[in-house]
User: What shape does this take?
Amino acid sequence: MTAVVEGTPTVQRDFRLIDSTLRDGSHAISHQYTVDQVVAVVKGLDAAGVQVIEVAHGDGLGGSSFNYGFSAVDELELVAAAVQATTNAQIACLMLPGIGVVDDLKRVRDLGVGVARIAVHCTEADITEQHIKAAKDLGMEAIGFLMMAHMNTPEGLLAQARLLQSYGADTVYIADSAGALTTNEVRARVAEIVGGIDVPLGVHAHQNLSLAVANSIAAYEEGARNLDGTSAGLGAGAGNCPTEILAAVCEKNGIVSGVDPLALMDVAEEVTRPLMSRQQVVDRAGLLLGYAGVYGSFLLHAQRAAERYGVSQAEILLELGRRKVVGGQEDMIIDVAVELARKHAEAEGAAS
Amino acid sequence: MGLPVAIIGSGNIGTDLMFKIERSPTLDLVALIGIDPESDGLARARDRGHLAASNGIDWVREHPEAVRMVFDATSAYVHVRHAKVLAELGIRAIDLTPAARGPKVIPSVNLMDHLDAPNVNMVTCGGQATTPMVAAVSRVTRVPYAEMVSTVASLSAGPGTRQNIDEFTKTTAKALEEIGGAEIGKAIIILNPAEPPILMRNTVFCALPDGTDHEAVLDSVRAMAADVAKYVPGYRLKQPPVIEAGPFHTPGGVVPHRIVVLLEVEGAGDYLPPFAGNLDIMTAAAVRVGEAIAAHQEVPA
Assistant: This one.
């Protein structure tokens, strides 16, 4: 038995934990979540004191597609089930302008979703104005979410964060979507942005360089007051910041997370791990993502393309890094695989 | 003498369009109209000897007899207002915004269908690039679901595009259905800030039902690529089209295969450098439509 911290606003917390097991984690299981799994995860996290639980296709609302993989169950059904299952935690949704539309926000608002995360590549904040304003008009909390934060400088990120703030974002996030940032790079980015905006900052870390927890703690120390994580680290690439580990490290560091590490360990072990189709480890492909700065969710798509076209997954990922592709360009995985297969065939033809 | 036309909107698209209309044997550019006298587009127009007005749609109101056709390269919201004014003045509108007030035209698919419409819509750059490929598949087999992904260089997406992302995806998805012939369409747009800027990329996925003649689909796609390249010279298949085995659980049902068509559009480099193929495909298609309407009007009743 584990103690349960009441997830009410009266609990003193040093930062807010946003759990993305049911959104970022969706990448790692190729968007095959069932209603029962969603309900089990939400109940576990809610009881452990998590304040915000994000639910959506891995690529956000409207992400179910050829390019990103079709959801097994309509995400609206999963969102509705999550809203029903939660007692204290708020349910959040993430959307990427260009993939989802304002109508998607309206639909989840009608289901009871209170937090909208509007995600965008870290240099393109000005495409979110429509969506941040729509979220505010719908009475939602709007979080502007800058992805692939390793591809912009601290000063550049600050300018983008200010744009998000000017559209009405209540909180701004930087996301290390490729798990490519070192701890010093996280510190520099957080310190620069925190000093230059009036709204709270959050950090979304990935595990590709095995730094997700360390980077999250560093972000907190530099002034970030929102941190993302997932149960058992389930997520794109080598996975996210595992919330049960983050909670444990926070406790040892005297940082009050407001969530119960033991309860989160139980959720990770008894609910999340049984639904995982593969272990969330830093294998070669996962490490390569962080090393080459490639969007984490490309991992499994690259694996499938490698099998289909008889080329190496590592070769695909390195070429994508060279091409500086950004989140959402999963079609380029096929492009690279077809091209590599053709080049190999030509080379063999020339040799024989 | 060609048909007297004006361009309204002096941003990326309007300025690129100016260069292309200059080369048209049947369209005469009377004016490039903007709202900012300091804009680069209007300066270019002056340099090239065109009338460059900065009072927007009012210029057209004040000179209703000067033009017979207006190319609107402003933004979706602005075009809604312009469409009314132009309709009242009896001036043909070729709409290059995603406002979609009139029927959508993709030259390689339905060029001759709307020659008498007072207002025609050019869909979106991605729609111009990808709808022909969906049409190429749907003339061979049923397409229960089609999807396009368009990636453009950040530098080539102006403020109009950036504020109209939802309109882009919705209008493009509709074009895949209405003109492409897909039962369900989906559109995705991505901006890529890489330096040097990437060439515009478009990918088309179509669900292929059981029993589809794959060779016929591939032949149709290759033929369509050649048709589009006739009016957009930089349009090409980046890789040979591939058919992948599923099954794929699409919103249009489970299908055993999908075709993936990987396209690239290199611009002519008229206004922005060749990476901005998204400008070219819109402006080249719009000129093609303008010329077809001009030719149609010349035919005596």
About this structure: DSSP finds 14 helices and eight strands in chain A.
